[in-house]
Amino acid sequence: GIALNGTESEARGNVISTDSVALALNNSALVLSGANNRVVSNRIDKTCFGITATGSSHVLEGNDISALKMNGRCGDVDYVRIFGPNHVVRGNNFHGTNRAETGAAHVDCVQSFDNSGPQYSLTNALIEGNACSGVDQGVILSGATHLQSDGVIIRNNVFTSITSWCAVVTDVSNVRLLNNTCDTTG
Hints:
Elements: E1 2-4, E2 10-12, E3 15-17, E4 28-32, E5 38-40, E6 43-45, E7 49-53, E8 59-61, E9 64-66, E10 77-82, E11 88-90, E12 93-95, E13 107-113, E14 123-128, E15 131-133, E16 137-142, E17 150-155, E18 158-160, E19 167-170, E20 173-178, E21 181-182
């Protein structure tokens, strides 16, 4: 995997594929912290989590993430997890996960929650132009613990074969859902 822990760094055009548990507890292919990092046009598969971003002002754009899997060390399976202010998740393709390989995991395309502290509150985020298919939820956001999550735009996304909600948002203020396509027919 790749970890970008500073500022103004970029991961572009990489292929990250592993069935191992070598990527630490959560088995994320790409982990971001710090600020102003870019993750662009990468191909990721077979990990528990595609991209996990903490810190601020990261751009995740044009990535293809597929075939996520549960392994013995992760309790969930998600394409992208974002925490903190000013993130952009744009033009990504989240697809191809086989339910037989995710077990009881709750699979989401984009997830955020503030359980780990107020710095994990999602603020001023843009989630746009993504294609998401074959998951439980397209976007799931919760700011219920610290009540500081605010200002999220979810627009022009296409959610297909979603088993539950295309977007579920709890205790996040000033959310705008605009021009999304939502297909929950299976």
